[in-house]
Every structure is written in C-alpha cells, then in structure tokens.
Amino acid sequence: MKKNQLVVQFKLNGRMVSSEVSPTMTMLDLLREKFFLTATKEGCGKGECGACTILLNGLPVNSCLQLAAALSPEDEVTSLEGLVFDPLLKKIQNSFVQEGAVQCGFCTPGMLVSSYAVLKSKKNPSDQDIKEGLAGNICRCTGYMKIMSAVKKAATEE
Ligand code: FES
Ligand code: FES
Fold first, then answer.
1. Residue 114 and residue 68 share a domain
2. 16 C-alpha to center of ligand 2: Å?
3. pTM of the model
C-alpha cells in the first residue's frame, strides 16, 4: 500500500467492494478513477452543479463534496450504473427522451439520479417537490420546463 493511503470498504451498486484511497480523494474520483464508473460527471467540482449526483444510503448527494475516506462497510453508494436495471429509471429515461429533456448529456446523469430520488420518495410529487428535488442540478441548455415535464410524465406512467 502506498504511503498515506487507507483502505475503505463499502457497498457499491449492490456489492461489497474495497479500495485504497488517499485522505483527500472524493467519492466522485473514487467512482471514476478506481471503479471506472464514468456516468457520474465532474462539472464544477465544488457542489454547485449536481453533475456528480449519486445516492449515498438512498439519498442524493454531490459526490464531489464527499470524502471517499469517510466510507464504511455500512454505507451504500449507488451510481447511475447501479440503477440501470431498475424499471423506475427506465421510465424516467424514456420520459426524458420523449419530453426533449436531454441535450448535452453532461448534466443528464445527475438529473436522472435526482429525478429517481424524487420519485422514489414520492409517487406523485407536486411541482414544488420536483423543483426542490432538482434544485441542486444545473442544466444550461434545455431550460427546466422540459425536465419538470419529464419527471411528471414518469410519475404518471404505469
Ligand atoms: S461536480 Fe459536484 S456539484 Fe458540480
Ligand atoms: S442537457 Fe446538459 S447542461 Fe443541459
């Protein structure tokens, strides 16, 4: 083991994993550089854009602000890749496409994770619930109306 490295163990997308990390490594870098899970994007790197959103113990967080060294075996990290076979994510993806809520693809993974978290916590979210759920995710191209409609559409579809 390299100097100043420590080993963390945690659940990643449903399976227990371990990795060497430096004390300053973020969860974003851990996912991308050690596990090659590149759906999670780095936008601002300082908690402002939401491109790096993942689920930590079921709740959406900015992975650029989370230290990998803080992970423990009780922690469950879910990246977009871990939701790929989840029917709720499929529904959200379809409605994003149908509503034209995707353009650059850079913010989209984070938007999908946040939308998933909104719909997981409430089956029929109000406009305000959706706005609050996506408040940390910035999109510079679609405008937010299409994204809002996509989440609403996903909520109402069987
Ligand atoms: S990269 Fe994490 S919030 Fe922007
Ligand atoms: S679609 Fe990515 S910034 Fe808007």
1. no
2. 32
3. 0.95
